[in-house]
Amino acid sequence: MRVLGIEGTAWCASAALYDAETDAVLIESDPYEPDSGGIHPREAAEHMSEAIPEVVDAVLTAAEAEHGPDAIDAVAFSKGPGLGPCLRTVGTAARALAGTLDVPLVGVNHMVAHLEIGRHQSGFENPVCLNASGANAHLLGYHDGRYRVLGETMDAGVGNAIDKFTRHVGWDHPGGPKVEAAAAEAAAERDANGELVDLPYVVKGMDFSFSGISSAANDASDDEVLIGEICFSLQEHVFAMLTEVSERALSLTGADELVLGGGVAQNDRLREMLATMCAARGADFHAPESRFLRDNAGMIAVLGAKMAAAGDTVPIADSAIDPKFRPDQVPVRWRDGDAS
Ligand code: ATP
């Protein structure tokens, strides 16, 4: 089966071809890069409507050049969660394409796709999944036909919390990679036992909060604390919170596998902390390569293929987007007998 996936929940217009027989994934992406500040929803939507036709055309042309006019067996699209105007462009493109090609349509939950790509690649049977993305942060575990939310942010998404600080200090979007670079530079120069900048560390069971930490980091920069020191401390706090709740989830569920997903998962320090924690308790850890971590249509196409194989397709009339689509709303039909 070959599936064309379309993704565009916020900033990245992306299309992909997934060939289930060879497990090959071709991804074309066109990110929205704001001139200044963060993601402006109207500009993101305008970017989406210009870029989606181009990335879809590029993937479709490549697919038909290699496999002929019947290259595509199904079209999968991100149905939510995300920005409504962006999702509407994606949904419209997917419906039009599925209708034109006369193939089934699959509506994919973007957050479930962020974790299923890690499960697919690692071959893990039943992992706990940490989604560390821009607008979200949550821990998922599979139980009784659904991905259950074991814990989540009580306010900001993890990437958004970091980006809020970088906007305050005048850095371009996305802020995460710049914080990572500044923190690594500071780490190389600082005393290993040196004090951290005092920032709030808020974990309640398996839930956590990031909104106070952005404000405290902003205040520290106004007080002229060295930026590198703030970046280092911000990462240590935020990633320690995520590591603590992940360990608690592993402990409470008895799982011995952890997969990581989402754009913030590109951060080496976060991966290092999680890998160290997993090694200490004898659990396996998997983080996909970068192109599958940030928003990308590859993960949509891969999960779309599993859903289509399980008969989980939607008639066009029932294919409305859902900006608040939660992972635990998805009946998981593709895992039965699925070892991947
Ligand atoms: P969601 O998937 O929740 O809709 P999103 O659409 O914002 O989120 P993602 O691609 O998952 O997109 O994540 C983007 C976020 O990842 C941004 O906030 C960005 O700053 C952050 N990010 C990217 N690279 C790094 C990095 N190396 N370290 C920390 N954060 C990073």
UniProtKB/TrEMBL annotation:
The lineage of its organism: Archaea, Methanobacteriati, Methanobacteriota, Stenosarchaea group, Halobacteria. The chain holds residues 1 to 340 of 556 of the full protein. Its cofactor is Fe(2+). It catalyses: L-threonylcarbamoyladenylate + adenosine(37) in tRNA = N(6)-L-threonylcarbamoyladenosine(37) in tRNA + AMP + H(+); L-seryl-[protein] + ATP = O-phospho-L-seryl-[protein] + ADP + H(+); L-threonyl-[protein] + ATP = O-phospho-L-threonyl-[protein] + ADP + H(+). The keyword Transferase applies. It is an enzyme of class 2 (transferase). Required for the formation of a threonylcarbamoyl group on adenosine at position 37 (t(6)A37) in tRNAs that read codons beginning with adenine. Is a component of the KEOPS complex that is probably involved in the transfer of the threonylcarbamoyl moiety of threonylcarbamoyl-AMP (TC-AMP) to the N6 group of A37. The Kae1 domain likely plays a direct catalytic role in this reaction. The Bud32 domain probably displays kinase activity that regulates Kae1 function. It is found in: Cytoplasm. This is Probable bifunctional tRNA threonylcarbamoyladenosine biosynthesis protein. It comes from the Archaea. The keyword Iron applies. Its EC number is 2.3.1.234, 2.7.11.1. GO terms for molecular function: ATP binding; iron ion binding; protein serine/threonine kinase activity; protein serine/threonine/tyrosine kinase activity; tRNA N(6)-L-threonylcarbamoyladenine synthase activity. Binds 1 Fe(2+) ion per subunit. GO terms for cellular component: cytoplasm. Residues 1-334 are annotated as: Kae1. Component of the KEOPS complex that consists of Kae1, Bud32, Cgi121 and Pcc1; the whole complex dimerizes. In the C-terminal section; belongs to the protein kinase superfamily. Tyr protein kinase family. BUD32 subfamily. In the N-terminal section; belongs to the KAE1 / TsaD family. One of its GO terms (biological process) is tRNA threonylcarbamoyladenosine modification. It comes from Halorubrum yunnanense.
